[in-house]
From TrEMBL:
Keyword flag Transferase: yes
SUPFAM superfamilies found in the cross-reference section: UDP-Glycosyltransferase/glycogen phosphorylase
Gene3D superfamilies xrefs: Glycogen Phosphorylase B
Organism, as annotated: marine sediment metagenome
Keyword Transferase set for record: yes
Domain Glycosyltransferase subfamily 4-like N-terminal: 27-119
PANTHER family per UniProt: GLYCOSYLTRANSFERASE WBBK-RELATED
InterPro entries named among the record's database cross-references: Glyco_trans_1 (IPR001296), Glyco_trans_4-like_N (IPR028098)
Signal peptide: none
Protein name: Glycosyl transferase family 1 domain-containing protein
Length: 335
């Protein structure tokens, strides 16, 4: 089976730092190659894969601002579509744009929907509802107007996330610095609980960071460590007393939540979006309804077993489970 994986070009695949869609595209590509499939990864020219790299855009537009996103995403997507006949399956991780080619080619397209930026993009998905195959990344993220083949949770490489049974006395916020992700709420939770907070992640909203977050950073109680790489992030996740995930939107999945549990670290998350699907309540963390509930949950962290967090994550979010599910989708589509 010849499979083309279409990754975004916002970041390199796999990303150096932030880039969840690119990370999942890379994880799937590498796992398929290891399983014996003929895989081509369509990504930026500086990307890495053990399969065949197909690239027309030299670098990511988030890392090289001379790259015009609209121009190069057009070139990038059309590069694959003009070669579609070389593949049995196209696995799309580039949102709705590639769907507009789907009735012009014979190769079936499977689209993993990583979330909806707004209701305004739904008409495109609806137009190709009957001729495309959609995969949701959580049941919570399914749109009522769309048809789905299945829900497949993101897979995580357990070998890259070291288990740590011994925790240090700090809380962690790990993710985009944005109001939707609840960075300020994490600071308030940490302050009220009496534990220091370490913050790591991409500053996505600089005005929000400058106005609400930066004034509270004192490198003692509240520390910002920057947009750390994977190795640094893994160490932070493994040693944290808990990951704070006070999201203010209905998050489709939440990779950092699964990654924390893979390290044996419990998660305290606001009860929204996919969180009830990802967290095993009172066994791998706590689902809370606000800051006060989160502070109370911190007092009960000792009831969470790091070993159970790890075993739960391996069972539910392993690469093997994810790849087996996707291979079955490919087989179903090809008959």
């Amino acid at each position: 089976m010849r499979i083309a994986i279409l990754s975004p070009i916002a970041w390199r695949t796999p990303p150096r730092y932030y880039g969840p869609w690119e990370l999942i595209a890379s994880t799937i590509a590498e796992a398929l190659v290891a399983t014996g499939f003929d895989v081509s990864l369509f990504a930026t020219g500086d990307s890495h894969t053990s399969g065949t790299l197909e690239a027309i855009c030299p670098r990511s537009y988030e890392e090289d601002k001379s790259i015009d996103p609209k121009v190069w995403e057009s070139l990038h997507i059309s590069n694959l579509m003009e070669k579609a006949g070389n593949y049995d399956i196209i696995h799309n991780h580039y949102d709705f744009l590639p769907l507009t080619y789907s009735r012009l080619i014979d190769t079936p397209i499977i689209t993993t929907i990583h979330g909806f930026s707004s209701e305004q993009i739904i008409p495109v998905y609806k137009k190709y509802n009957s001729t495309s195959t959609y995969i949701s990344i959580s049941d919570a993220d399914r749109h009522p107007d769309l048809n789905y083949h299945s829900t497949i949770y993101h897979g995580i490489d357990s070998k890259k996330f070291a288990f740590s049974a011994v925790k240090e006395d700090y809380l962690l916020f790990f993710g985009r610095i944005h109001e939707h992700k609840g960075t300020l709420e994490a600071i308030e939770i940490a302050k009220k609980s009496g534990y220091p907070l370490k913050i790591a992640g991409l500053i996505q909203d600089r005005e929000y960071f400058a106005r609400h977050i930066e004034p509270q950073i004192n490198n003692t109680n509240i520390t910002y460590l920057g947009n750390v790489n994977q190795a640094e992030g893994n160490a932070l996740l493994g040693k944290a007393k808990a990951l704070l995930h006070p999201i203010k939107f209905d998050e489709p999945f939440g990779l950092s939540v699964a990654e924390a549990m893979m390290c044996g670290t419990p998660v305290i998350a606001f009860n929204r979006g996919s969180m009830p699907e990802i967290i095993d309540y009172e066994k791998t963390g706590f689902l809370v309804d606000g800051i006060s509930d989160a502070v109370s949950a911190i007092q009960n962290l000792d009831t969470i077993s790091p070993d159970y967090c790890r075993s739960y994550a391996i069972k539910k979010f392993s690469i093997e489970t994810m790849i087996e599910s996707y291979i079955q989708v490919y087989k179903d589509i090809l008959g």
